[in-house]
Amino acid sequence: MRVLGVDPGLTRCGVGVVEGVAGRPLTMLGVGVVRTPADAELGHRLVAIEQGIEEWLDRHRPEVVAVERVFSQHNVSTVMGTAQASAVAMLCAARRGIPVALHTPSEVKAAVTGTGRADKAQVGAMVTRLLRLSAPPKPADAADALALAICHIWRAPAQNRLQQAVAQHASKGRPS
Q1: Helix (H) or strand (E) holding 51
Q2: DSSP state of 38
Q3: What DSSP character marks residue 18?
Q4: Residues 6+ apart with CB under 8 A from 14
């Protein structure tokens, strides 16, 4: 499975592509950040993010796009920017018919480090180790994007089995 992980943000949108299957060594195919100037008009920033994501989709042809689920923070303007960048990533994937998976920050941390309360340094260290890299990807947004992709690869098989079980249960419960 090839997954493009997206850590959404207006100034720095982390992107990373990981390939592999659960239980086997994973391979990083690319990592980076789509940047936009903080003083640019919002619409122009969103277009720049779209163009950056589209380039990553063209170059790496992922089967799934894993995006960090936006959660409530105290700073509303930060949440809004994150949500807008997240929507752009989802739109780019949907336009191409690529499935989108949303993962919460604590879900990603737990999958990669074993604890949902891990800090950025711990996530970066585990991403480095899991992908056999010489150093943690910089900035942290790039490492977070790889962590999202890893999380999805590891969790997708279990999530698919759960969805199938729910669907089977629902179909048996329907009157004929």
Answers
A1: helix 42-60
A2: T
A3: E
A4: 5, 6, 7, 31, 32, 33, 139, 140, 141, 142, 143, 144, 145
CA distance 93 to 110: 25
Supply 30's token pair: 């690319």
Do the strands 2-7 and 64-68 form a parallel or antiparallel pair, or are they unpaired? parallel
In whole angstroms, what is the distance from residue 103 CA to residue 69 CA?
5
User: How far, in Å, CA of 123 to CA of 126, rounded?
Assistant: 5
The pLDDT of residue 11 is: 95
Residues tagged active-site: 7, 68, 141
DSSP three-state, residue 27? strand
Beta-carbon count within 10 A of 47 CB: 14
pLDDT, residue 171, reads 79
Single pTM value for the model: 0.90
Which residues, 6+ apart, have CB-to-CB distance to 130 below 8 Å?
26, 112, 150
Q: Are 4 and 56 in contact (CB under 8 A)?
A: yes
Residue 93, pLDDT score? 98
Segment 69-86 mean pLDDT: 84
Distance CA 133, CA 54 (A): 26
